[in-house]
Amino acid sequence: MATSMRWIALFLLVAVSALAVSAIIEDGLLPNGDFRNGPDKSQMKGPVLTGKHAIPNWELSGFVEYIESGHTQADMMLPVPVGANAVRLGNDATIRQQLKVARHTYYSISFIAARSCAQEEKLNVSVDPEFGLLPIQTVYTNTGWDTYSWAFKPRHTTVWLSIHNTGIEENPACGPLIIAVAIKTLYPQLYNKGT
Q: Which of 189, 178, 171, 188 has its CA nearest to residue 73?
């Protein structure tokens, strides 16, 4: 009887471990990382998002706008590509998402961003307790978009990824545009002696 209970306990342990591993986020876009699943119109006031969970899979705080292709601001068209959607992080705005990851494994977060105002813009990317402050550059290309990456090594299996605009401007809407957020597992390079 004791032996069969041990086998059942071992089986349950293996089954639970397999479920935990399968829940780890996969490489590629984060869930709704391209913001295609937009907000319900009842959670918007113009382009400004009014609900904490207005964008599926994301938690919002501060002055966050949902920008669709063709959106204009004071006679200036924002550079959102046709068919894409973006979020604009205005004054003290944050988007964040909870992720299931493997402890002590390196990951890279990448996102595509563009400036929307002339002011200096910076984004604080963090997975507690680690963070990185990334300046958003003016890119002189035909699109104005650039890709930014930041690596981290989580201490827990469940973490919050946050992207925060630290700026406070006279125009609260001034802030970076983001159109895609992705994750990649970084595997250590193995050194083969003699090669």
A: 171
For CA atoms 56, 60, 63, 69, the dihedral sign is negative
Q: How far apart are alpha carbons 102 and 194 in whole angstroms? A: 32
Query: What are the angstrom distances between the C-alpha of 173 and each of 36, 133, 180?
Result: 21, 20, 19
CATH of 25-186, one of 2.60.120.260, 2.40.37.10, 2.40.50.140, 2.40.50.100: 2.60.120.260
What's this model's pTM, rounded to 2 decimal places? Answer: 0.81
Amino acid identity for residue 155 in this structure: R
Q: Tell me: the pLDDT tens digits for 29-63?
A: 999 999 999 999 999 999 999 999 999 999 999 99
Does the N-terminal peptide bond of residue 176 adopt cis geometry, omega within 30 degrees of 0?
no
